[in-house]
Amino acid sequence: MHLSSDETIFWQHGFFKLNGTIVFTWGLMFALAVGSMLITRKLSTDLKRSRWQNLLEIVVTGIEQQIEDVGLRNPKKYIGFLGTLFLFVASASLCTVIPGYDPPTGSLSTTAALALCVFVAVPFFGIAEQGLGGYLKSYMEPTVIMLPFNIISELSRTLALAVRLFGNMMSGAMILAILLTITPFIFPIAMSALGLLTGMVQAYIFTILAAVYIAAATRGPRAKPAPTPDITA
Amino acid sequence: MDNMTLIAIASIVTAGLTIALGSIGPALGEGRAVATALSSLAQQPDAASTITRTLFVGLAMIESIAIYCFVVSMILIFANPFWNHVIAQTASK
């Protein structure tokens, strides 16, 4: 059975294999990069603007708003990283409407790479915001006893990010393949529409979770709660 | 029964049990989460965006447990290391 895009091999020479994951990833990267380069080549600041510029502005301001809602006060600093994650995962699952395309996020190597990016970015932004000492101290919140558990949670949430996206994308393709053998008409279409929705939700969740982790790492030590005024007197 | 049959039986039965038992908990949890979110949406429609966002993130967290079970059962069926080992042993004989 066809489990992931790792198994479609386009070209092979000795040790090097050019499998579907690599090809589709580079295709997506190329489409996203060239597309945004073409659109942002001539931007207008007056009221008359092209429809593509409008589209990009909606996307960018929407992502910015979502990042700000999570609790990152300065979204412009993080949108480069978080926005790229969202656009890549979202377009990877949206392109499944193209025949012959396998989502590269249905391969564990791609999702593991994305999760590792988050794993590296969290301390990066945390140290940039709080300094090395301040960031390392956040591992010992609320007490020193929590230190091993904080480290374990750091590792386990990276694993969870990778396996969640992989499992969702793979299960979508899998269910479609199984359904095609049982009921070849109509029903697979409904399931692939559901797959598109799942893909968007997973892209959103991946980005929001990365934003939440970064927000937790960049936020300074939480202020002690103010003593409640005595209202009984 | 030789080793091969035993491994095949164990893998298939375990795969079924994994996904069956593993989806009970997340299903109950998601039901509770959605029910609570709906009642709080009815009480405070103004906070709809915050509730919906938190609900989605929470649902994904709960659902990932079921996804882990799914991945494990898929490994047992399609990429079983023990099965591959036995196959390789029989082939080399």
Describe how the helices and strands are arranged.
The complex is a heterodimer of chains A (233) and B (93).
Chain A: E1 9-13, E2 16-19, H1 20-39, H2 51-70, H3 75-94, H4 108-137, H5 147-182, H6 187-218
Antiparallel strand pairs in A: 1-2
Helix pairs in contact in A: 1-3, 2-3, 3-6, 4-5, 4-6, 5-6
Chain B: H1 3-43, H2 48-78, H3 81-92
Helix pairs in contact in B: 1-2, 1-3
Please provide the ordered H/E string of secondary-structure elements of chain B.
HHH
So what's the overall shape of chain A?
globular
The Rg value of chain B, from CA coordinates, equals 21 Å
CATH architecture of chain B: Up-down Bundle
Helix content of chain B: over 70%
Integer average pLDDT of chain A: 85
Order of helices and strands of chain A: EEHHHHHH
- In CATH, the homologous superfamily of chain B goes by the name F1F0 ATP synthase subunit C
Low-confidence stretches of chain A: none
* CATH class membership of chain B: Mainly Alpha
Residue fraction in strands of chain B: under 5%
**Coarse shape of chain B:** rod-shaped
Distance linking N and C termini of chain A: 73 Å
Total number of helical segments of chain A? 6
- The helix fraction of chain A, in percent, is 55-70%
The overall average pLDDT of chain B, rounded, is 89
If you had to describe this structure to a student in words, what would you say it looks like?
The complex is a heterodimer of chains A (233) and B (93). Chain A has 233 residues and is mainly α. Chain A has helices at 20-39, 51-70, 75-94, 108-137, 147-182, 187-218, and strands at 9-13, 16-19. Chain A has one domain. Helices cover 68% and strands 4% of the residues of chain A. Chain A has a two-stranded antiparallel ribbon. The longest helix of chain A has 36 residues, at 147-182. The model of chain A has no long low-confidence stretch (mean pLDDT 85). In chain B, helix 1 (3-43) packs antiparallel against helix 2 (48-78). Chain B has 3 helices and no strands. With 93 residues, chain B is mainly α. Chain B has a single domain (17-92), classed as F1F0 ATP synthase subunit C (F1FO ATP Synthase).
